[in-house]
Amino acid sequence: MEYLFKELVERAKRGEVTAAQLIIDRLHPLICSAIRRCGAGPDKKDLYQEACLIILQCIKDFNPSKGVPFLVYVKKRVYFGLMNTGRQRVSAISLDKEFEGHDGDTCTLGDLLMSPQPGVEETVMQTGEVRRLYRAIGKLSPKQRQVILLHFFYGLKYKDIARARNSHYKSVLRLKDRALKSLKEHLEKIEDDVSLKSRF
Q1: pLDDT one-digit tens code per residue, 136-191
Q2: I want to staple 140 with a disulfide (CB 3.0 to 4.6 A). Which of 69, 99, 145, 176 is the partner?
Q3: 137 CB contacts (<8 Å, ≥6 apart)?
């Protein structure tokens, strides 16, 4: 198959450095175009070097028997290679960089990051809420408690709960509604009791 740069590619495949350099020099406009289109960034020299490395790899991998012209092959590899390089670049931001808030206060990015672990206060509050919830569930009737536990804690669907209880779907929904209403009342009563105790 005849294609542009055939002689240069064959010489470069044999290891001639000057032939590879000539190919890169002649593909300079392609490289600049790819940098503008695909991976613009502050490091244009790095992108240019990356494109040159891709071209050298193309010379090594190019197989004329596949019927793809060399320039088409190189163009696609350079464009996609630079796009991938641009995606992999993540600009580093210092955690010590200061930002000004709406109220005029300044803080660092590190200050704004939240810890994935809950703090001591959150853990204590969650533990207290869970205890109140279990106390309120314990005050439900056995049927109501069963529906609440099976649906909200074990993830069963209402139709599956109805099938397991040998009852109608609608009766399970009514039981759930009564249980939630009762839970709300129990939780409010427990909260009132806790607030009364904390006053004294």
Answers
A1: 888 899 999 999 989 988 889 999 999 988 999 999 999 999 999 999 888 888 77
A2: 145
A3: 145, 148, 149, 183
